[in-house]
Amino acid sequence: MLVVLALVGGITAWQQSRTSNRRQVEAEARRIAAVADGMRYSDPVRAVQLSVAAWRLSQTPETRSALIGTMTQKERDVFTVFQDDDDGSVLRHLSDNGRTIMEITANSITTWDVPTHRRIRTYSGPGKLLEESGESVVSPDGGTLALLMDDGVRLWDIRQQQVTSTLPADQPYFANFSRTGRALVTQEDEGTGATVLRVWDIGSGRPQLRLPLLVDEAMQGSAVSADGRWLAVCTDRRPVQLWDLETDRRMPSLWTDETGSKACHFDGFDFSPDSRRIALATPTAVRVWDPRTGEEYPQMETNAKAGLRFSPDGDFLTTTSPEAISLWRVSEPDEPVFRYPLAGPLVFDVRLDVEAGFLRYLLRNGTTVRTVSVGSAVTGQWYTEKQAPDNVLLSPDGTSALTVRRDRPNQGVPTQAWTRQGC
What does pTM read for this prediction? Predict the structure, then answer.
């Protein structure tokens, strides 16, 4: 009896110890899951890792919720460049696809790989030229730095680490590269209160167009098409202007303000990479035209204020409002194919990486690059209205879909099978 009682007591103590340990593990797993939920915006990579770790420790409703949260989590990465920028002396440039970011100071120019957070290369900076310049802009390819000096625009070749040419601009105080970097738009002070806008050909160093502005007329923005033919100009005293740089001729106004105002109220514009479309952001919509014919495409109903930009392939357009970043498919503009709510500070330099399926943007402080997954919004199979299938059947596990479309009456019905990995 004594032996039996001892065995029973030992087993009971062992079971109680196991129960206590299990409860401790469950409590720790719940704590880790709660930490993961709180880090989804500040450190999304660590949040995913903690969610998986919590589920492996203990499969509780809390850890399951955290694991499901990783599947719906749009944020994929946060990369912060820790260079001190209290005096605004650091210039940062995000590449067209958002995969690299360039940090420019007077002493050095450093290029970082955003996905891996690794330094790619460091070049010597322009030194006192950057400190003495009124403003500096980087070409889209990251190869040239335009320094606005009193005697002109110095073009600093970042790879050669020297000034390669100087554009004879008159006291420039604003500059903007074209998307290909082959043209530069400057706004110059003629000393009489009036200003002039010039378009410079980078290769020859000669001005293509000289556009006088009115006294006290402020330019809101400008853009040159990728083929170098079209110039769009927005000021606070006139409607938007579209110029043909080949003929130095102003094209008819694309849009007339319904209120009758003569000022340009556009919040942004951008040319498509093939130069066949120009998108203009109005207070209530984004309107798209063909600059060659003046034909207008269906507009996108949105209150975007900034960040209007075509994707590198021209199929998508990103718009930014204080509430969200939206991704639109240009051929189907009824609704955005992706929407990312914004809860923090304002953003700028929104970039779309179509191949990787990521959206990247800089925060207003310019030191942090955030990466957001857009899923299959840009990589999935898209149909035009005429190609839309008549029926779609999804497999029970959700990994495959069967589409049925009738091409011609009284003939066979073609079917296509798609998998999630192969779509």
Answer: 0.77
